[in-house]
């Protein structure tokens, strides 16, 4: 089959330690506007229609965090350029025509910059975004101004820096190391690099105060939605109940058209609610015999896939089970893990807890179980 456009890969460099960003661990794994820094960066490329593959270069010490990214990961080197080369080598021979090389700390990247860099590669072997220096420039020493400097022709470099894949791979293989960025590597190999307009929002998180700036930028353009879900199932005959995907021994079972997982149903409806997409009954009618006894994980996955298709990521879910018995506490950790696995989330993004109704109402009379859930959805 003939390809209609070039194949593009994104290499996100995330192997640094980020010591200037202050305490709290490497900055790429720290929280930013409800997600991790790296999650925002990956999402920017995942949302662009011209990016076919994403590879993140990480530090070996970060394998546990990296395993949650859902994209290809390779280990980096001791320096930035060594990490970039590790990423490029991992992609070599796989049919990519162009590559975008990006610093993970630029989590506020917008689609316009990506598009401009890719468009420029139609006529040049390299392209990179930058902003012209507009402030006056000084030289200083000992807290004193020692000289002024002309700002004409000076630019503040940004990423992603884009290149024709084979050219930049050859340039990195030939370079002795120590380059500040990939434009330096490209120019050392004689490659022309076109400047495209950068974006003030595309800041690089370097110092502690940069987190607050990035939060403001991301918060201004995010679509954040909350959804609530509520479900009830009565007790019937049986020797167990299914709650949040976990089989819990009990003297009675829950009645329902599917497996009657009241907790998972509430979470599923919360996601549908945030999307304004109705409820489980709308997507899986109880009058349809094919859903008789169905595993409720199917419903939850459908809701998550629908959110993803609409460009949303799930920030967190919170589920409260209301019953006198069975006791939920001994099973809560397993429930959180099961729900996280189904939704592709970390366990710390999923809360499962229980309460009673103080012997009041149908739950107090142990006639059934109710569940209330809230879900947060975020679109960059």
UniProtKB/TrEMBL annotation:
One of its GO terms (biological process) is isopentenyl diphosphate biosynthetic process, methylerythritol 4-phosphate pathway. GO terms for molecular function: 2-C-methyl-D-erythritol 2,4-cyclodiphosphate synthase activity; 2-C-methyl-D-erythritol 4-phosphate cytidylyltransferase activity; metal ion binding. The record marks 151, 204 as: Positions MEP for the nucleophilic attack. Residues 224-377 form the 2-C-methyl-D-erythritol 2,4-cyclodiphosphate synthase domain. Residues 1-224 are annotated as: 2-C-methyl-D-erythritol 4-phosphate cytidylyltransferase. Residues 225-380 are annotated as: 2-C-methyl-D-erythritol 2,4-cyclodiphosphate synthase. A divalent metal cation binds at residues 231, 233, 265. Its cofactor is a divalent metal cation. Its EC number is 2.7.7.60, 4.6.1.12. It catalyses: 2-C-methyl-D-erythritol 4-phosphate + CTP + H(+) = 4-CDP-2-C-methyl-D-erythritol + diphosphate; 4-CDP-2-C-methyl-D-erythritol 2-phosphate = 2-C-methyl-D-erythritol 2,4-cyclic diphosphate + CMP. 4-CDP-2-C-methyl-D-erythritol 2-phosphate binds at residues 231-233, 257-258, 279-281, 355-358, 362, 365. Keywords: Isoprene biosynthesis, Lyase, Metal-binding, Multifunctional enzyme, Nucleotidyltransferase, Transferase. Pfam families: IspD, YgbB. The record marks 20, 27, 257, 356 as: Transition state stabilizer. Pathway: Isoprenoid biosynthesis; isopentenyl diphosphate biosynthesis via DXP pathway; isopentenyl diphosphate from 1-deoxy-D-xylulose 5-phosphate: step 4/6; Isoprenoid biosynthesis; isopentenyl diphosphate biosynthesis via DXP pathway; isopentenyl diphosphate from 1-deoxy-D-xylulose 5-phosphate: step 2/6. PROSITE patterns: ISPD (PS01295), ISPF (PS01350). Belongs to the IspF family. In the N-terminal section; belongs to the IspD/TarI cytidylyltransferase family. IspD subfamily. Bifunctional enzyme that catalyzes the formation of 4-diphosphocytidyl-2-C-methyl-D-erythritol from CTP and 2-C-methyl-D-erythritol 4-phosphate (MEP) (IspD), and catalyzes the conversion of 4-diphosphocytidyl-2-C-methyl-D-erythritol 2-phosphate (CDP-ME2P) to 2-C-methyl-D-erythritol 2,4-cyclodiphosphate (ME-CPP) with a corresponding release of cytidine 5-monophosphate (CMP) (IspF). PANTHER family: 2-C-METHYL-D-ERYTHRITOL 2,4-CYCLODIPHOSPHATE SYNTHASE, CHLOROPLASTIC. NCBIfam families: ispD (TIGR00453), ispF (TIGR00151), PRK09382.1 (NF006899). This is Bifunctional enzyme IspD/IspF. The lineage of its organism: Bacteria, Pseudomonadati, Pseudomonadota, Alphaproteobacteria, Rhodobacterales. The gene is ispDF.
């Amino acid at each position: 089959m003939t390809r209609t456009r070039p194949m593009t890969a994104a290499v996100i460099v995330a192997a640094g330690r980020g010591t200037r960003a202050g305490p709290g661990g490497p900055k790429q794994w720290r929280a930013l506007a409800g997600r991790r820094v790296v999650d925002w960066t990956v999402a920017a490329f995942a949302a662009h229609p011209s990016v076919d593959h994403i590879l993140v270069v990480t530090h070996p010490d970060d394998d546990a965090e990296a395993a949650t990214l859902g994209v290809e990961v390779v280990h980096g080197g001791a320096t930035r350029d060594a990490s970039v080369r590790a990423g490029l080598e991992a992609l070599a021979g796989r049919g990519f025509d162009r590559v975008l090389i990006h610093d993970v700390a630029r989590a506020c990247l917008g689609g316009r910059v990506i598009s401009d860099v890719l468009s420029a590669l139609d006529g040049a072997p390299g392209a990179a975004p930058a902003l012209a220096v507009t402030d006056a420039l000084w030289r200083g020493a000992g807290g004193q101004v020692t000289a002024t400097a002309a700002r004409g022709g000076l630019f503040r470099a940004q990423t992603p820096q884009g290149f024709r894949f084979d050219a930049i791979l050859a340039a990195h293989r030939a370079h002795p190391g120590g380059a500040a960025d990939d434009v330096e590597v490209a120019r050392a190999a004689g490659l022309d690099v076109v400047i495209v307009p950068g974006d003030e929002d595309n800041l690089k998180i370097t110092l502690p105060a940069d987190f607050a700036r990035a939060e403001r930028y991301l918060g201004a353009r995010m679509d954040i939605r909350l959804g609530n879900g509520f479900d009830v199932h009565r007790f019937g005959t049986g020797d167990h109940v299914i709650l949040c995907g976990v089989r819990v021994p009990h003297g009675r079972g829950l009645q329902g058209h599917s497996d009657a997982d009241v907790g998972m149903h509430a979470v599923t409806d919360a996601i549908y609610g945030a999307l304004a997409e109705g409820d489980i009954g709308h997507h899986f009618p109880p009058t349809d015999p094919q859903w008789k006894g169905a595993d409720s994980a199917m419903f939850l996955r459908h809701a998550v896939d629908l959110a993803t298709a609409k460009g949303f990521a799930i920030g967190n879910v919170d589920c409260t089970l209301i019953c006198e018995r069975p006791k939920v506490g001994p099973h809560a950790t397993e429930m959180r893990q099961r729900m996280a696995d189904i939704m592709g989330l970390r366990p710390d993004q999923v809360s499962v807890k229980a309460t009673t109704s103080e012997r009041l109402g149908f739950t107090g009379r142990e006639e059934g179980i109710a569940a209330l859930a809230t879900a947060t959805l975020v679109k960059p």
